[in-house]
Amino acid sequence: MHVESLEPRALLTVTLGDPILSDTVEIDDNVVVQDGSRSITATGGPSSDGHVQIFGNSRGRIDGTAGQSDEDLSIVADTFITVTGAIGATHRIDDLTLTSQTAQPVNLQQAVSLTGDLRVTKAGSFTIGSTVDIDGNLTIDAATNVMFSGNVTVDGNLTITNATSVLFAGTLTVGGQLTIVNVSGSTRFAGDVSVGAAAVTSTSLVQVQVDFASTGAAGDGDVTFTTDQIGFTTGTIQSTAVSGPTSAPAATLTVKPRTLNRALTIASPPGAPAGLNITDADLNAIRPGWKRVVLGDEVDGTGAVRIPATVVAIMIFSSRSVSAIPNVPVRPSSGSIAMPSALNRKSAFGSCTGAARR
Q1: How far apart are CA 77 and CA 320, in angstroms?
Q2: FRET partner for 350 with CA separation of 20 to 30 A, picked from 67, 101, 146, 227?
Q3: Where would I find the H helices in 181-330?
Q4: Per-residue pLDDT of the chain (358 residues; tens, 9 = 90+)
Q5: Which has the closest alpha carbon to 115: 71, 159, 54, 179?
């Protein structure tokens, strides 16, 4: 089905009780969603690939209706979904759900602004080409490459599951919990990040290129990076989460390997390529304000831990001795690890329990 405007400024209205259902849906116009739950569905057929495309010269927008507050839209395609205009730029809709049944690309080319939730239940690559402003939650259940080209603001929780790679090219602000689970490739944060709390699991790499901050708005504000390679490149890793009458630091930062029993090298120079290397630059990025900083897996154990003997006064920021972490042998490449009593003192990071030195 191809719907085309008879006038340049005419609007197609998706009305209550009249869902759009066809083999293929192409709307060469703007879409206005009225109060209630609406749907656009392309099922595919013998001569159709089953895509949904909302497009047009100065068109392709999706908006709600003035004076209404509960406009929900579901777009389901057998193959790809493309929306060339902004979503919610004039009148915001509430919830938007997107599904590509055969995991084809879902491409929102302009800004997205919703009063409710954005959910992607299935997609190939998922791309938003401009800014994102979500009052509710943003959930991506299954996609391959996920890319946000502009700044992203989510007042609720942001959850991404089972992606191949994730890129936030702009800033990221999450009022609640940031959860990124089972990314088989890399997760990259190219702009400043502020989250209530975070748990990021990404096999090959987690890269933080600017600043990453936990506010403690979700739980204690704990941040956990589970990955086989970390990179805190030029920014800082910090927490402003506090608790109690003395406003003591409340959050724990954990960096641990994704692969069970993977070796861990703390400080430079890096160890074997097969290990998780936490470099001098990574350590220097960790700023005061954390209750605890844990390097390694406290629950399942970590592989061999290497602290290069060429490094002077690299401290293990944890409330426990390194040797007390379950199943973690401490094996410096040469020299020795000394824990003089002078180093067992409180620091800006909490409890300083050890240091490597020549």
Answers
A1: 53
A2: 227
A3: 280-285
A4: 555 443 433 444 444 347 888 899 999 889 999 888 999 999 988 888 999 999 988 889 999 988 877 899 999 999 999 999 999 999 999 999 999 999 999 999 999 999 999 999 999 999 999 999 999 999 999 999 999 999 999 999 999 999 999 999 999 999 999 999 999 999 999 999 999 999 999 998 999 999 999 999 998 999 999 999 999 978 899 999 999 898 999 999 999 999 888 888 887 777 666 789 988 889 889 998 999 888 888 888 777 877 764 443 334 433 333 433 333 344 444 333 333 233 333 333 333 333 333 2
A5: 71
| Residues composing the chain | 358
Q: How many CB atoms lie within 10 A of CB 207?
A: 17
Please say whether the beta carbons of 246 and 240 come within 8 A.
Answer: no
**DSSP string over 302-340:** -S-EE--TT-SSEEEESSS-GGGSTT--B--SSSEEE--
